[in-house]
Amino acid sequence: MILFTFSLAACKDVPQNGEYDITAGVTEARGDIEFTVVSYNLHSGGATQEMIDKAREQIDASGADIAGLQEVDRDGSGRAGDKMISTLTSGAMNNYFFAPTMSYYFGEDYGIMTTTRHEMAGSFSLFLPFPYEHPTLSNALIEPRVVTRTLITIDGVQVAAYNTHLDYTGKTMPDGTLLRRAQMQFVYELMLTDPCPYQILTGDFNAGGWDDFSVFMSSDKYALSSTPENPIASFFTDGDKNKPAYIDNIIYSKDSLQLVEAFNTESDLSDHLMLTAKFKTIN
User: Fold this and answer.
1) In angstroms, rounded to a whole number, what is the distance separating the alpha carbons of residues 97 and 94?
2) pLDDT of residue 105
3) Could you report the per-residue pLDDT of 15-62, keeping only the tens digit for each?
4) Cα–Cα distance, 152 to 278 (Å, whole number)
5) Residue 109: strand, helix, or coil
6) Which of 225, 212, 221 is CA-nearest to residue 277?
7) 5-37 as b/e, with b when 16 or more CB fall inside 10 Å?
């Protein structure tokens, strides 16, 4: 109890978003390219250095151009993944943007990260809807969540790469909206304002069912790589292979990108599976 009280007292207030310019640096150039995207929750709280080393090898071996990673610890966090960022960026995916979620337990040492083997620019991070203004004993376990966006140039063509990790608690906003659906709506509306023609969104959405993706599934602008018709498991509830869950996904702008294939890669490196999606541009 003493440790918990101290941790809570040391917390910051829930942050607010500042100004950003989503149009800055966007060229809107179109071109014929093919590229590979992975989404991977690395479960930093349960990771060992060996697991992180192997996860980096797995991502590099996939040929990924863009990797959206969740549950990443900043180097020096003091947990098992004490050199997580430097390890994950020590191979082909050596450019990165890390954004802390300001977890109440890990300060600014825990968050999400986008990595790439290509040129990266125009990165920013925004906090997602959150139902409370200040941490209390009753809500301290509900960490603020973020979405990041970065422009990645592949063979002269920019791709707007979004990454996020949504709420899992089942809590609601003051208006009664499920928190993760309010967060999903925020990300959707943000992406609609992006002038970059090629967009992808990686993430652990902690979806309780396909309805949680409804804002994207009903859109004429975006599509899911893992769908009710072609579900790709990314998690097994209680570790039971008979209880697959489809909580991770790679979402893309369907008017400008064609999904070539999507699949998972089973391993014991995390409690999640790595999702991979391959795309080519539509012009």
Assistant:
1) 10
2) 58
3) 778 889 999 999 999 999 999 999 999 998 888 999 999 999 999 999
4) 16
5) coil
6) 225
7) eeeeeebeebeeeeeeebeeebeeeeeebebbb
d(CA 129, CA 268): 33
Amino acid at 218: S
CA 283, 151, 74, 57 torsion-angle sign? positive
Task: Assign 145 to helix, strand or coil.
Answer: coil
Which CATH number covers residue 168?
A: 3.60.10.10
pLDDT in tens, 91-121: 999 999 999 986 655 567 889 999 999 999 9
- N-term to C-term CA, the chain: 59
* Total count of domains within the chain: 1
The per-residue pLDDT for range 205-214, each reduced to its tens digit, is 999 999 999 9
Instruction: Decide if 24 is inside a domain.
Output: no
Which structural domain, as residue segments, surrounds residue 204? 2-15+29-281
Least Cα distance to 178 among 199, 138, 209 occurs for 209
CA distances to 88, 115, 152, 195, 254 from 206, in Å = 23, 21, 26, 28, 23
What pLDDT does 44 receive? 86
Please report whether residue 20 resides in a domain: no
* Burial zone of 140 (CB within 10 Å; 0-12 exposed, 13-18 middle, 19+ buried): middle
